[in-house]
Amino acid sequence: MKKNHKKKLFSAKVFVRLKDGVLDPQGSTIKRALLDMGYKGIEEIKTGKVFEISFGSEDNKKSKVLLDEICKKLLANPVIEKYRFEIVSKK
Amino acid sequence: MKFGVITFPGSNCDYDCYRAVKDVLKEDVEFLWHNDTSLNGCDCVILPGGFSYGDYLRTGAIARFSLIMKEVKRFANYGGLVIGICNGFQILLESGLLPGAMLKNKSLRFICKYVYIRVENVDTPYTNKCKEGQVLKIPIAHSDGNYYISEGGLKELKKQNRIVFRYCDLDGNLDIRFNPNGAFDFIAGIKNKQGNVLGMMPHPERSSEKVLGSADGRYIFESIVEYFRGKRF
What we know:
The complex is a heterodimer of chains A (91) and B (233).
Chain A: E1 8-18, H1 25-36, E2 48-57, H2 60-75, E3 81-89
Antiparallel strand pairs in A: 1-2, 1-3
Chain B: E1 2-7, H1 14-25, E2 28-33, E3 44-47, H2 67-77, E4 81-85, H3 87-94, E5 101-103, E6 111-119, E7 135-142, E8 146-148, H4 151-159, E9 163-168, E10 187-191, E11 197-200, H5 217-232
Parallel strand pairs in B: 1-2, 1-3, 3-4, 4-11
Antiparallel strand pairs in B: 5-8, 6-7, 6-9, 9-10, 10-11
């Protein structure tokens, strides 16, 4: 018989953005707009995406494995993007 | 010879491809559905342009997981002819059948216009009817056609002669003003190592009849038939 592992509810934020060295035309356009608005100190802007995910998992370690997998397979394109995530255990 | 045109949710050049093959090329063609699990004996599969899955997440990122893509991968690995046009090219990149990725156009605009591309390699199933350096007038229509690949990847593409088309001016010169989207090294189309898979951003199906402004796209479709006939008989 299978052991009945108790799953807890986790939530995570995944951040995806273009790798350094990959041209980010949206970022440079926003930077130019800010400079035009008079914000003189702006050095660089990188745009990206944030995903908020809720999921059931047994523990932190398994959550990390899961998130790493879905980032690699779908949420980020490793050719041009990099990702990181933060996990919060809800209950 | 039988062509198959895959319709993904959001494809919008599938009928153009179908018509180019059926009415211009006068070859057999049928539609394949993204949920199909067979290519129905097609000899060449076309992944058409459009906005599969609304371009959500990244262009081609979701279509890549369509059921039919498993078959397309298997077919490609056995040497089957697969051509991805525009969004079809983006799907081939996401699926790993071709290297690299697409970034937003440098101008951040959707660009829809005729451009010139230079044929860099005529030794492919898709360009054997062209002359080396021939300039083709074929339209583009995309937001994400700014081809990116790592320096190492570019070296490999060059070494293996896998860059098939480059954006150029009317006379075939590489000029930054004629690189519409900012693509790395003016790249408009590449092939895989074996040469049976081609991805290109310009739309040959939209330029296969004079009445559309150019018939240069026919070179590509006719090359495919020529290659297939030569290989078979």
